[in-house]
Amino acid sequence: MEPGRSDVSPSLKTPASRLSFDVLVFGAQLAGAVTGALLARRGYRVLAVPHRPAPPAYVDGGWRLPCGPAILPSLRTIPAAAAVLEELGAGADVFRALTAAQPLQILGERMRLDLAVEPARRASELRRELGPAGQEAAALLDRLAEGNEGEADLLRTAPLPPQGLFERFRFRRASRARPAASAEPLPLGDGAFGDGLLALWRLSSGLWDDAPPTRIAQRPLAHLLRGLHVYPGGTEGLAAELRRRIVQAGGTVLGGDAGEGAPTNPIEELAVDGRRIAAAKIEGSPHEYRAAFFVAATDADELREILPAKATDARLARVLAGVKSHGGLVSLNLVVAPGGLPEGLGPAAACVTGDPAAPWLFLQTSAAADAEGRPAAARVVQISRQVPSSLHAQGEAHVRAELRALRQAAAQFLPFVDRHVRFESSPHLQDADGLSARLRLQPRVEVGLPRALGVTGLPSRLPLRNLVLASREVLPGLGVEGEMLAGVRAAAIVQKRLPKKELLR
Question: By CB distance 3.0 to 4.6 Å, which of 15, 249, 500, 504 could disulfide with 40?
Answer without folding.
Answer: 249
